TrEMBL record:
The keyword ATP-binding applies. One of its GO terms (molecular function) is phosphotransferase activity, phosphate group as acceptor. GO terms for biological process: 'de novo' pyrimidine nucleobase biosynthetic process; nucleoside monophosphate metabolic process; pyrimidine nucleotide biosynthetic process. Signal peptide: none annotated. This is UMP-CMP kinase. It is found in: Cytoplasm; Nucleus. It comes from the Eukaryota.
Length: 226
């Protein structure tokens, strides 16, 4: 990836894609919610039933962190451990690269972008440089529930930030920086909010209802279409 100051996405004055599934287009749904709200779990359901490609900003950053020769590895590691938000130039370019290569590989232009935008400047820059989002799917979950889930996950996840101290910082960053993004989109009527306290299958039902209200339907499986 080129120097952090001005990766290719930031040299453009209009988005790379417009919203849609044709040539030069892409569909993006932002998936937000506090750490441990269940974004990854529900994205897996949506991938299975709706044919989206799931892009987790955190996973892409961890991959870049571990990529031999990455000039950003050490920086990413420090930010993640501390629960802070990596400078958006890096994250946005990683997302754009992942979108472009998915389209090239299999023509899929439907993306769930999980755990991004975590900060207002990222939201604006992504919609300006890459593609305007269709809407934001927001998993609304009390902190206590998220904390329990994260500590549980921490027993096996091997993640450097699934521990008491990092979790505290991640909650604070969520409330101070990421929640305002959700509120901004909500004020424009661009958020599908789902209560995320319930069991995964109940939460998924609510997600499906919301998607159907927005005209997004599951893909027919081969065995169902005959
Ligand atoms: N992160 C970031 N920018 C992003 C997404 C993630 O800097 O757009 C970093 C941030 O340090 C965050 C960490 O990656 O705390 C883990 O993010 P992930 O989405 O994997 O965590 P989750 O919310 O799923 O628990
Ligand atoms: Mg996640």
């Amino acid at each position: 990836m080129p120097a952090i100051e001005k990766p290719p996405a930031f040299q453009r004055d209009k988005p790379l894609f417009s919203s849609g599934t044709g040539d030069g287009q892409a569909i993006v749904i932002f998936v937000l919610g506090g750490p441990g709200a269940g974004k990854g779990t529900q994205c897996a359901n949506l991938v299975r039933d709706y044919g989206f490609k799931h892009l987790s900003a955190g996973d892409l950053l961890r991959e870049e962190q571990d990529r031999p020769g990455s000039q950003y590895g050490d920086m990413i590691k420090t930010y993640i451990k501390d629960g802070q938000i990596v400078p958006m130039e890096v994250t946005i370019q990683l997302l754009e690269n992942a979108m472009t290569s998915t389209i090239k590989e299999n023509g899929n232009r439907k993306f769930l972008i999980d755990g991004f935008p975590r900060k207002m400047d990222q939201a604006l820059a992504f919609e300006e440089k890459v593609v305007p989002s269709k809407f934001t799917l927001f998993f609304d979950c009390p902190e206590e529930t998220m904390r329990e889930r994260l500590l549980n996950r921490g027993k096996t996840s091997g993640r450097a930030d699934d521990n008491e101290e990092s979790i505290k910082k991640r909650f604070r960053v969520f409330v101070e920086q990421s929640k305002p993004v959700v509120d901004h989109f909500a004020s424009k009527g661009r958020v599908l909010a789902v209560d995320a306290k319930a069991s995964p299958s109940e939460v998924y039902k609510a997600v499906q209802t919301g998607f159907s209200e927005r005209g997004i339907d599951p893909e027919k499986k081969a065995e169902e279409s005959v």
